[in-house]
Design a protein that fits this description.
There is one protein chain. The protein is α/β, with parallel strands linked by helices. Helix content is 40%, strand content 14%. It has 13 helices and 13 strands. The protein has a 7-stranded mixed β-sheet with strand order 2-8-7-6-5-3-4, with helices on both faces. Strands 9-10-13-12 form a 4-stranded antiparallel β-sheet. The chain has a two-stranded parallel ribbon with strand order 1-11. Helix 11 runs parallel beside helix 13. The structure holds pyridoxal-5'-phosphate. The site of pyridoxal-5'-phosphate has 12 residues, from helix 4.
Length: 389
């Protein structure tokens, strides 16, 4: 698809996002912008609650949960049986970790660029003698495959890392990491929160065992819903000990005589899902699918390169992968006072975010080069260029 058509795509969908009437929104990697369809879905949820009360569970909400599992399954090229819902990535991790046996294989390999919650789950399991290995990043952008290869061994239970690093936007070679893990008999868990919705993700082709994501960022669905992909045979083999009544066979038989976990990924589900978010997430997921993630990737890749170029032209340093193919739409502009700079952007009508040492901008398909121009102009006016690295 030529560039002009991709631009029209943004123009076409932008009216779906009222926030652009009052602001330039460039912070999707924290929270996707609210679309009209998600707001309408929320209203639909409330109307159903009003009309049916608890009967809405059987008439609508359980079916909606299944639709959302199926929508996520399609997004990552998995089957419905391989997908489950959780309230957050942290909660999903808790139930996955509870299924692992660390006695023969105490090591878990992760990295300093992964989201803290991923690392915390293993730091917290000192009681099980878990040995977390937190790989360092030599350039502060990514972790070389060699470092993974050197750390994974026959004592490794799990390699847990990200598809896209939230800290730098760098895209990891997940397929290669999964191969390294499997070569030593370890499992590979991927935190794909920052990739699903902005990059094509095919869980099967990537060869991962477990993949986690959530609704609120690039999938435009709001807070309170995360997704798990658990590779088919594994969903039967791994038995979580952190469990709940949504994960058992015959959920509505209320049998306390025995724990019969489901034979699929849903054995990792625990309790009542956030139904308002289910409705919003279904709307967001469907909007993303309607556009198509391949098209979104082309669009955001071009916006990312445009943003980088503008920042560099304005004299800023940009932290990110050296190779454009390994760059996602999280653009880290180095800054000595990022919080103050984001405040200046906000005062000028641009909503952005910051992380230590950098202003973070993250364009989605609804953004335009004019948004980038505005953000960099404001950033330049505020000063704080820090050329160097
Ligand atoms: C890559 C990544 N993983 C995990 C999380 C945290 O997920 P949760 O709050 O659902 O536990 C975030 C939140 O921003 C994230 O960016």
């Amino acid at each position: 698809m030529p560039e002009a058509d991709l631009y029209e795509l943004a123009e076409r969908y932008r009216p779906e996002f009222p926030i652009f009437r009052s602001a330039v929104y460039l912070n999707t990697c924290s929270l996707g912008a609210l679309c009209r369809r998600a707001r309408a879905a929320l209203r639909e949820f409330a109307d159903l609650w009003d009309r049916w009360g608890a009967a809405a569970w059987y008439e609508h909400w359980l079916a909606a949960a299944q639709e959302v599992r199926a929508d996520f399954a399609r997004l990552v090229a998995a089957s419905d049986e391989e997908t489950a819902l959780a309230p957050s990535i942290s909660a999903a991790l808790a139930s996955v970790v509870s299924a692992l046996d660390f006695r023969a294989r105490p090591k878990v390999v992760t990295t300093e660029l992964d989201f803290p919650t991923v690392v915390y789950h293993f730091l917290a399991r000192r009681d099980l003698d878990v040995e977390p290995v937190v790989l360092r990043s030599p350039d502060g952008v990514s972790v070389p495959l060699d470092a993974f290869a050197g750390a994974i061994d026959e004592r490794t239970a799990l390699v847990a890392t990200s598809h896209v690093y939230y800290t730098t936007g760098a895209i990891q070679d997940v397929a290669a990491i999964a191969r390294l893990a499997h070569a030593k008999g370890a499992l590979c868990l991927i935190d794909a929160y920052q990739s699903t919705g902005q990059l094509p993700v095919n869980a099967r082709e990537l060869g991962v065992d477990i993949l986690l994501s959530g609704a609120l960022k690039w999938l435009l669905g709001g807070q309170g819903l995360a997704f798990l992909f658990v590779r088919r045979q594994l969903g039967e083999r791994l038995s979580p000990t952190t469990v709940g009544w949504f994960g058992v066979e015959g959920q509505f038989e209320f049998d306390v005589g025995a724990l019969r976990l489901r034979n699929d990924a849903r054995r990792f589900e625990m309790g009542t899902p956030a139904v308002p978010t289910l409705y919003m997430a279904r709307a967001g997921l469907r909007l993303v699918s309607e556009i198509g993630v391949e098209r979104i990737r082309r669009r955001v890749a071009s916006l990312t390169e445009d943003l980088r170029a503008r920042a560099l032209d304005a004299g800023f340093s940009v932290r990110g992968a050296g190779d454009a193919a390994a760059r996602s739409a999280i653009v880290m502009i180095e800054h000595p006072e990022p919080a103050a700079a984001v405040g200046r952007l906000m005062a000028g009508g641009v909503i952005a975010d910051h992380r230590p040492g950098a202003v973070r901008l993250s364009p989605h398909f609804y953004n335009t080069t004019a948004d980038n121009e505005r953000a960099i102009a404001l950033l330049s006016e505020a000063g704080g260029r820090a050329r160097g690295r």
